[in-house]
Predict the structure.
Amino acid sequence: MRRFLPLLGLVFALAVSCRQNNPENIALPYAKKKNDACPAEKARFEHFLWLQNDSVFGEEIQHWLEHELEASQAYLSALTWKARNTRPQTDFASNPQIRHKVLPICPIHTEDSAELHLYYRADLFGSGVKPLVMTFFDTVSDSLVPPVCFFDEGGILAVLRQIETTDTVDSLDSLPVRDTIDLERQLFGAMNVLISEGYTTPRKTALVLREKQMSFCREVLFLRPDFFRAVYLEPISDSLCDEDWADFTQTPDNPSYPSLLITNTPSHYYMVAYLQEQNQRKCGRTPVLLCEKTDYETLWKFLLYPITEKNRLIRRGKAGV
């Protein structure tokens, strides 16, 4: 038995080292502070509202933010590409391998019709659920189109857009850009269609939201957070933040939230801190991360890592801190 003790010690040391280097175990900064003067509608956030008071807690907020960004960057830096072709898939119109399919979306309680435009590799579009990225017609750009390797793994890009009866759309490049009216019902309708018809599942779906779609925060974070596995949120104006985050108090306790990558805006801070507290201030399997800005590769590594089969596109290395 004694001759096996060194081997057991080595195994134990390796196990401890792996745990310490696991990005899921990256610690996020402590942000819980007693707050007696709290509005009733924000009672759930009472211990985190000091992060909104820059005039009183300016230095403490800056200290929290520095550690927050450092921890988030450490997690993101641990994600590296395994796939080779990571450039944006932008040649939808000219690429004969990419097919375009339109699904009508007719949600209940709305007069506005919508279409869901699917883009995928025809030779890989067989049976079985696929990883899927959903975005909106006014967010489609090179920076928000998935990489070629995503489509090479059978991935689907779903572009949700509101339509008028006079609209005709033949390709992604011809999608018109105009103001979003109210797509909240359509978002539910689109996800219900995609899931019921077997295209994907919530665990294989990522969502990209930019400022024009910030009303969808209610759907993603407050009403049906279980619809998505990973979500990217671009900056929100302060007026939208205060209105949308107030709905957070109406959600059930401890819902299943998706992984969130949120660009740095002060109005996010107390919501970010609250969600991280629910994860015991660890990144965990569904991290809530704050970043000042993100590049193309970082964005897509974050979104695709949790939704792609057996992580064939991305590997997760050791933690940076």
